[in-house]
Amino acid sequence: MNLSDSLHLAFPEAFLAVAALVLLLVGAYAKKSMTLVSILSGVALVIAAVLAAMTATGVAFGGGYIADNAASFAKVFIYGFSAIAVLLGDGWLKRVDAERFEFPILIVIAALGMGMMASAGDLISLYIGIELHSLALYVLAAFRRDDARSSEAGLKYFVLGALSSGLLLYGASLIYGFAGSTRFDVIAQAVHAGAGTGGVLFGLVFLICGLAFKVSAAPFHMWTPDVYEGAPTPVVIFITTAPKLAAMVLTARVLVDAFGGAVEQWRQVVLAIAMISVIVGAFAGLVQKNLKRLIAYSSIANIGYALIGLSAGNQQGVASMLIFMVLYMVDVTGFLACLMALRRDGRPMETLADISGLSRTKPGMALVLTVLSFSFLGLPPFSGFWGKFFVFQAALAAGEWGVAVAGLVFSVVAAFFYLRIVKVMWFDPPAGEVDEQPLDAKLVAYGLAAFSALPVVFVLGGLQSVAQAAAAALSVH
Fold it and tell me: Which of 311, 242, 238, 247 is nearest to 275 (CA)?
């Protein structure tokens, strides 16, 4: 395939790369350019999502880039939720008097890296995509340089991210050494032929560990609570949505495309990480008073549920993971948008004590948080219930009865801290008056909560069929 054909398949990423350069010039030369750059960045991300949905399928750049239904599925949601982060970040930075035009550009660059991750066809493009989006996220986490917590979050994220990159690179080098290639299809042939099987699988363990860090799966989750607590809230919304989906799709592509012939070997590793994540997320969340830290441990547990679906090792398992991730992204974006909207005397409300008696001062926001808490809990008919339903269904179909039962048990444990949020809002005395809520965060919170409560039931059929088509694009064995 020549260069023009390759660029045609990779047009969404090429468009975002050019857009980032143009936006950088606009920001540098236009006065008071934050809003203008944010609008243009949001438009660029929406256009990229449309382009991703319309892109033809094929393999480009010598097998290093794959355009298929799985990549298109991931990119549509990655770019869409990135646009929401740009929208929320623009308003939030203005309210805290920290406007800088670099913020939306960094999100565009991170989205570009995530698009490359979703389409990675070999170990080199995998690493480039991961590092491109990770470097942008490190800067975003420390974006408020005058805030000690934000600087600490960015530093911890960077140092621990470098460690995970080392694990990932070591695993990739072992795989290359024993398989003789960085391309996933050639690695798959080597695995089927049994060439250097022990060494290849040893490298795969390190590779999985590096990827587990990117999705904040336990025991590689140590960065998550501190980064979630210290980073700006719109950055937390971004970190906990699009990058997680990109990393999960990349993990599925590596395990299924390159190591589909060794399902029984990698399933044990994935299941172990999944169960540790569910346990750590459930029990550590019980003692949290800060809501952003609570969401951090909730995200660790939810990644565990997604990995349970992936561990099924078949098309149904991959599809269930994709459905779960999309529905989880809806819930967590809505919840964190609520936290963005809630302020008292100009100070963010981020603890359980802050939202005490919220039903009496802001009943609409209390209802939204209640709906999203019930959805996290997995209560029907909210979206979180359907995400877990598909994951456990895939686990049971694969014969993983013990894992499914354990997942349900620890889901009940985690129910305590979600119900505690509801109890504090509706039954405790008010902590004081709440500031007027910004329209952007309020609209996002109300809209996503409303979707989670009822319309989600009507789109499940379409989402399931699209997710199955995406899963079928991978070489599931």
Answer: 311
